[in-house]
């Protein structure tokens, strides 16, 4: 062979290797350069700066700012935040199993004990006030400090001095701590005679097994169609997402492909086990809060034409994170890859720094997206999130209702109600009476919250703009007339929005007496998306 031709062939073969080496060398050079610059700056600061150097605060701020230049999910977790981080990742901790309410200068109040928790077993109930924890007064502690004293190693005991909610009796209650794991399957039941409904809130270890068990149980109750609700599910472990897809598709099916830095760092993830049921009609519900593992599941099932995806477009998080231990017991949650659905779509939003107010992906022109094909040839697109096959409008709430919820007015009323009512009917039999709603109105009228309507809030913005433009004299009387026409006092506005406020009150009261799963039953009763879904069938 001609030496010139041989030399050309060898150069082509070595080109990818050489490019990779040069790229790695370039990254190493840049890193070394900036480490040297940073080291020089710090040396000069320590030798010459006029005041004391706030080292810890300055370095933490520097690390945070540095990582913010990457993506929202690559973060540094210092040692003191490890426990909260572990809780966020695993949804488990050693404790008594209850949500508490605590303000400085007030006692700890049991807000929501979890069903079957150590708190419930020991006799603690919603509304009980904790005065002391192991003899230590909690009055002047913060919520975080109080929680830290209540948590502990599973099997250890903690003694509470408690003021009982209705009797006012003060007694000591001993609780044996357990490993508390908040279940990812919040509710599983029959929506109607033939349709099962499962609400899943996360993807921590074991959720695929739990989902399988619930599907088997629902099939015994006559389920012929499953509605699998991933709305608001922010994701979790990719391995659990793969196993969940594997319940519905043949063993060995491609679920997701992860692509890391460098073209050669691509890994395909396929289902590992025999499926539970490849024919069960399946509808997956998603919304703007469905992210990460939720998008792996919904995207894979959509690409395989195995499920109907319904709801609103998902969040658009197509990134994979690993947790890396660091010096001094810190941790780095680092984005290591992007993931792609079986059709080749990356669900990561094109620009994750620009989102709607609810966190969802903004409208993306088709010119910036690409077409992909499902197993049956249907067109699907990338560019941000999973677009449902059936778009479903959800419940629309007024500004007033959002304000009641966000300011904790309905939550506070539930605690007020508990103090004078020993029981509440089961969710199937419970409906808020007119008398109870009027009691809520009387309670809420004395609370501080923004009760302006959207129209009045907009009018306030117009009035401010008119003032800035110096037009008050010419349009002031017109604005005053409009203001008078729109004006409603707090009580009148609450009564006007009674129909949309009642479901929130019913749910908050129900979870106080019958726990979270019962609250889901109330939510289902008023779920407009589900009603619209069944109108399609």
Primary descriptors:
16 helices, 19% strand, Pdz3 Domain, 6-stranded mixed sheet, single chain, 537 residues, alpha+beta, 6-stranded antiparallel sheet, 21 strands, 2-enoyl-CoA Hydratase, Chain A, domain 1
Write a brief caption for the model.
With 537 residues, the protein is an alpha+beta fold. 40% of the residues lie in helices and 19% in strands.
Structure description:
- This protein is an alpha+beta fold and 537 residues long.
- It has 4 domains: 3-53; 92-181, PDZ domain (Pdz3 Domain, Roll), CATH 2.30.42.10; 185-391, Alpha-Beta Complex (2-enoyl-CoA Hydratase, Chain A, domain 1), CATH 3.90.226; 399-453 and 488-535, no CATH class.
- The protein is 40% helix and 19% strand.
- It has 16 helices and 21 strands.
- The protein has helices spanning 3-48, 55-68, 82-90, 118-122, 143-150, 207-220, 238-245, 293-303, 399-406, 409-418, 434-444, 454-468, 472-486, 490-496, 498-525, 528-535; strands spanning 75-77, 92-95, 98-101, 108-113, 129-133, 136-137, 157-163, 170-176, 178-181, 185-190, 195-200, 225-229, 254-259, 266-270, 282-286, 308-311, 319-325, 331-340, 371-373, 379-381, 390-391.
- Strands 3, 4, 5, 6, 7 and 8 form a 6-stranded antiparallel beta sheet that branches. It has a 6-stranded mixed beta sheet with strand order 10-11-12-15-16-21, with helices on both faces. Strands 1, 13, 14, 17 and 18 form a 5-stranded antiparallel beta sheet that branches.
- Helix 6 runs parallel beside helix 7 and helix 12 runs antiparallel to helix 13.
- It is globular.
- The termini are far apart.
